[in-house]
Design a protein that fits this description.
alpha+beta; Alpha-Beta Plaits; Metallo-beta-lactamase, Chain A; six-stranded mixed beta sheet
């Protein structure tokens, strides 16, 4: 629960506020960009929500905040309940954003894919009844895909409840030592006709991406949409191997996809050709400093 006594002075006056426990994970800015922005080292309410849509988004951000740093002076319970019921949030086809981000993954995003051959959970949200019930209503979870060691969060609890198979790369398997499926090597692995695991070492030694139906790429902390650059971004700090990171980005040029669904950073949907062009621009931008000697 957010504490009004810790309300940041950067908040606009009004009902919603962010307190000083904020970890600046960006979750609220993704869900309610009109109301929340980064101010200094924290998120803050820069514009109080106006109208039903902005109010709904602000309550979604409040619920998704991994550390409970968003609060209200007065709660509109009906709107709050509507926001809770909206999770998992439909994105495209049978793909959903889970919400209820976990502090254990520094507020990393997680996703649910409904599929006739078994549903998937990509990385892990908080283990809460609302999501357990929602997943049960959709037929449970067969696979839990862990993009890397940082975003394991409450996946053991979901795996135990649903009897799910966890998938992680051997190089990051210390974060999930009892995972049921260990990916080896640096070559793509076809799980089925529609799902393909793509090793993308760089951020961590065992980072892996999941490509679904040649349209949706779940990237963990390997790739995201950078709203400040208006282009694709990739990690520049906390990188295990910068050379391999660029090699992993370049590898994705061989794949077709229209969505980037990251653990951190904004998601983006673009035509495949435009996505490819942005990937090339990212590579050029990341390679240029080394070439220019800067």
């Amino acid at each position: 629960m957010a504490d009004q006594r810790k309300r940041l002075p950067s908040n606009a006056s009004g009902n919603f506020f962010v307190d000083s426990t904020c970890i600046n994970c960006d979750t609220c800015r993704q869900l309610a960009p009109t109301s929340f922005q980064e101010v200094g080292e924290f998120s803050a309410v820069v514009d109080q929500p106006k109208g039903n849509e902005e109010l709904h988004q602000a309550y979604q951000a409040l619920l998704a905040c991994p550390v409970g740093s968003i609060g209200t002076e007065r709660s509109e319970k009906a709107t709050l309940q509507e926001a809770m019921a909206s999770f998992p949030l439909h994105l495209a086809q049978d793909v959903y954003y889970c919400g209820f981000n976990s502090e254990k993954s520094f507020g990393g995003n997680s996703y649910f894919v409904r599929h006739s051959a078994g549903n998937w959970l990509i990385d892990s949200p908080r283990y809460i009844r609302r999501l357990v019930d929602a997943f049960e209503a959709q037929g449970g979870i067969r696979y839990i895909f862990l993009t890397h060691q940082d975003d394991v969060a409450d996946s053991p609890l979901y795996a135990k409840h649903f009897g799910a198979t966890r998938i992680i790369h051997r190089a990051d398997a210390a974060a999930a030592p009892d995972a049921e499926w260990i990916v080896d090597g640096d070559q793509p692995v076809a799980v089925s006709e529609l799902f393909r695991v793509i090793p993308v070492p760089g951020h961590t030694k065992g980072s892996i991406a999941l490509l679904y139906d040649e349209q949706l790429l779940f990237t963990g902390d390997h790739l995201w949409w950078d709203r400040d650059l208006d282009g694709l971004g990739s990690p520049e700090n906390l990188v295990w191997n910068k050379r391999l990171l660029l090699t992993s980005i370049a590898r994705l040029l061989d794949d077709r996809f229209e969505w980037v669904l990251p653990g951190h950073g904004d998601r983006i949907h673009l035509p495949a050709a435009e996505m490819h062009a942005h990937l090339e621009r990212l590579l050029h931008r990341r390679r240029t400093p080394a070439v220019a000697g800067r």
